[in-house]
Amino acid sequence: MGSKLIDDKTMRDIINAKDISTIIAILFHGEFKEDIEEFGGMEIKGELIDFALSKNLARNAGKLVHIAPSTERKLIRSIVGKWDIYNVKLLLEAKEKRQSYDTIARYVIDYGRYDAATVKEAMREDSIDGLLGKLMINSPYADILKDALEAYKKTRSVPDAIAAIDKSYFRSLGSVIVGLRVIHNESARIIKMDIDMKNILYMIKAKRSGLKFPDISAVMIDRGNIPAPELEQIYNGSKDIESMALQIKAYDLKSAVEVYKQSKVKQLLIFEVGLRNAIFEKSLKLLRHSMLTFGTILAYSYMKEIEIFTLRILINSRIYGLSKDETSRLIVWKTE
User: Fold this and answer.
1) For residues 84 and 137, is the Cβ–Cβ distance under 8 A?
2) In 10 A of CB 314, how many CB atoms?
3) Cα 119 to the center of its chain, rounded Å
4) Contact, 34 vs 47, CB < 8 A?
5) Which residues contact 283 (CB under 8 A, 6 or more apart)?
6) Per-residue CA distances from 122 to 115, 236, 319 (Å)
């Protein structure tokens, strides 16, 4: 499965592609052929490309659970469960904006407890409260959604509910992280890098909005590689987004800061790409240097996620306001 990830040359070809049709042609000759064929083949319409990408991710997520040893299947389900959580967050954002299911269908990962059919059904609920209540019924994520519902009732804010979901989900992975630190510390570090990314992005958004650290302390997630006191010190000791990003020594965000400074449209996506690059590189090392264990399955799951994320950026780069040069400078993709 790892060998089917897009290699460096192909990714560069995609970055340099002159139009969407060229990108589709490149993807059609690789692992995405089956998914593109399902939505129209080489004549696929631009708006259906995201459907094909989501389908590919769902298919591979299912494989991970299937191939995992029975002793580690529960761990893999916990990790792959992030796509259930992703779908719930997508659903909440759409409901808040009073969007129809069709507006988010292309981004839904049709896998797991909250697959496409469940998401579509939940969209019929009249309120956020009703939606969360419906999703909680006989759900393994009931405690996570309960935290989201309580957060929403306090402020009637969907972003607060989503922050509560993130915090609760990673808290639920606490025992996984502790166990991994004993059997495979590098695997634990990758999950903790994911937590770091969430925290750093919260900090960047808050800094742009002029908030104080106490205003966001409740949504910060424990158990990352960077301790909470260090994050608070970095936040309070920086005057703007750029200086704050450069103080985060655990991750090299220099390139992201330079692109951000030069960009006409100040997209925070730039920093997310930089952080995901770091997770990709760490995952790649783990996938290449470990036997087939939980660690290699975990590493592949993150690499596949970032592959889909990167393709979406490249296909929608104009929407995000990133030029080809800016995108090329940001994306680090070496699988060989």
Assistant:
1) no
2) 18
3) 18
4) no
5) 190, 298, 299, 300, 302, 303, 306
6) 11, 41, 29
CB atoms < 10 A from the CB of 21, how many? Answer: 13
Nearest in space to 86 (alpha carbons), one of 59, 64, 58: 58
Question: For the segment 270-315, what is each residue's pLDDT rounded down to a tens digit?
Answer: 899 889 988 888 888 877 766 656 778 888 888 899 999 889 888 8
**CB 294, CB 76: distance < 8 Å:** yes
- This prediction has a pTM of 0.83
Cα 187 to Cα 21: distance, rounded to the nearest angstrom? 38
Q: Is the CB of residue 271 less than 8 Å from the CB of residue 327?
A: no
Reference 294, options 42, 75, 133, 21; nearest CA is 75
Tell the residue number behind the tokens 């002029």, with chain if given: 210
Tokens found for residue 15: 């970055």
Contacts of residue 95, Cβ cutoff 8 Å, sequence gap at least 6: 123, 125, 128, 131, 158
Separation between Cα atoms, residue 276 and residue 311, nearest integer Å = 13
Give CA–CA dist 156/128, Å, rounded: 9
Contacts of 13 (CB under 8 A, 6+ apart): 26
